Amino acid sequence: MQTKRFIGENPKVGIRPVIDGRQGGVRESLEEQTMNMAGRVAELITSTLKYTDGTPVQCVIADSTIGRVPEAAACAEKFRKEGVGLTISVTPCWCYGSETIDYDDRMPKAIWGFNGTERPGAVYLAAALAGHNQKGMPAFGIYGHDVQDADTQTIPDDVKEKLLRFTRAGIAVAQMRGKSYLSIGSVTMGIAGSIVDTDFFQTYLGMRNESVDEVEIIRRIEEGIYDKEEFKKAMAWTEKYCKTNEGHDFNPADKQKSRAQKDADWEYIVKMMIIMRDLMCGNPKLRELGFKEEALGHNAIAAGFQGQRQWTDHLPNGDFAEAMLNSSFDWNGIREAFVMATENDSLNGVAMLFSKLLTGSAQVFADVRTYWSPEAVERVTGKRPTGAAANGFIHLINSGAASLDGSGEQTKDGKPAMKPFWEITEAEAEKCLKATTWYPANRDYFRGGGFSSHFVSKEGMPVTMVRLNLVKGLGPVLQIAEGYTVELDADVHKALDERTDRCWPTTWFAPRLTGKGAFKDVYSVMNNWGANHGAFSYGHIGADLITLASMLRIPVCMHNVEDDKIFRPSAWAAFGMDPEGSDYRACKNYGGLYK
């Protein structure tokens, strides 16, 4: 089930076929070749990429080739009417540089200059990029490694990779623009990430900030401002898939709730989930019930729930609502995951949002809890870790917003995976639910009760852990760590897991090491991580995140991505020969995309 969540349509990719403007033989000889290049790029994108709602990414091609300013202006007007959010210019030849480039300084832009000997596409590419850089409008340059013949009908693999990387990141930028981050509550126990920085959201992401007090959930529950029919359906589903997996109550006898109280908590947390979703994206059903204002929602592409402590000291916790919103399925079937940050950690919510927009898959929110060295594991358990865990690993665990997709019960090529919702089967969704135990909440932490999910991620998933941090005087910085989920021997897992909380979801994470810097060893990864939280996504998507960050002018302070995969605007090369330093200097020079 997939319903429209946001105001407006999905952003489209604008393709600009740029041509030598000289009539009388030159331009005419290039019309077909240039338009064919545009058509091949459009076909590549629409057949390969999808929006997060599962529909194919749409492309718009200019009505004519662009050789002079009036044609560039006509193209820009068409793109404005069509809702274009990023542009790709293509050409096989020399063109008039500053007359033909895209002048929208907030629109991500790339130029593919054909590598051929018949016409100087590379010369235009260099001239146009120089124009962009001189005018302060960074653009991505795409130039194939090998010379092609003029009549070729194929796009080289290296060009495809850059076209798709640019488009994935550009679509993510355009999808955030104009949307909201919704805070349900405020600051959680002094966590800096939940001190929402509205200037960051506006200046770097082009997003609004919305906020409601947590009392709004109470009001809607007490006044019946939710879809009663959906609630009945949701409770029947929850009885079948979640209550049947209710775990042992490990609380002391004097703190355990009665069966009747636990049943009431189940009803309460299901209502919480429905209401938190309605707060994010609205619900037309509420209008039918007479609640016109509540039906609107907040046009929120991401949200966070404060929870601790004022809420959880008194009422059932938000773990069920957060975990299920972040999953790719619920009582309405398989659907696009939401982004709901536990403890209203808006910066981790942004990290989740970046990765979700790039992959279309659910994200896992976690504490970056403990580094386990091989020596410490052996001391505690008598066994030394082997295989992918041999160099040590990091324990990712948090009571709240871990998507059930993170269990690894979905499969891709026969291996554990977290897939976009349109690839998930009903059987895979049920496996994720069966792999999850719902334990009565630890009432030392959560005095109001509720339930916390528990699963253990399967081994072998390639994942990327991400975190956005704000540093005074510097601004936002992004951290990226690619690696793999690992499994431990059952007795080793039990010994380590129960030192923390056996009732919470666990992922054992082994980052890929490079032997230098923050990735010299696993300890260094943990020691350099910038906050108490991180979010991980399926797949090694660090290169896409680096491209996205450069579009937003956010420097990357830590990553283990191979150098040859890093793709940033051409202007970055003018800021020095060391890639990390040039990234910082370029981002400082240009400032946030919406400054």
TrEMBL record:
Pfam families: Fucose_iso_C, Fucose_iso_N1, Fucose_iso_N2. It catalyses: L-fucose = L-fuculose. Its EC number is 5.3.1.25. GO terms for biological process: D-arabinose catabolic process; L-fucose catabolic process. GO terms for molecular function: arabinose isomerase activity; L-fucose isomerase activity; manganese ion binding. It is an enzyme of class 5 (isomerase). It comes from the Bacteria. Mn(2+) binds at residues 343, 367, 533. GO terms for cellular component: cytoplasm. The active site is at 343 (proton acceptor), 367 (proton acceptor). This is L-fucose isomerase. Residues 396-559 form the L-fucose isomerase C-terminal domain. Keywords: Carbohydrate metabolism, Cytoplasm, Fucose metabolism, Isomerase, Manganese, Metal-binding. InterPro entries: Fuc/Ara_isomerase_C, Fuc_iso_dom3_sf, Fuc_isomerase_C, Fucose_iso_dom1_sf, Fucose_iso_N1, Fucose_isomerase, Fucose_isomerase_dom2_sf, Fucose_isomerase_N/cen_sf. Its cofactor is Mn(2+). Belongs to the L-fucose isomerase family. It is found in: Cytoplasm. Residues 179-360 form the L-fucose isomerase N-terminal-2 domain.
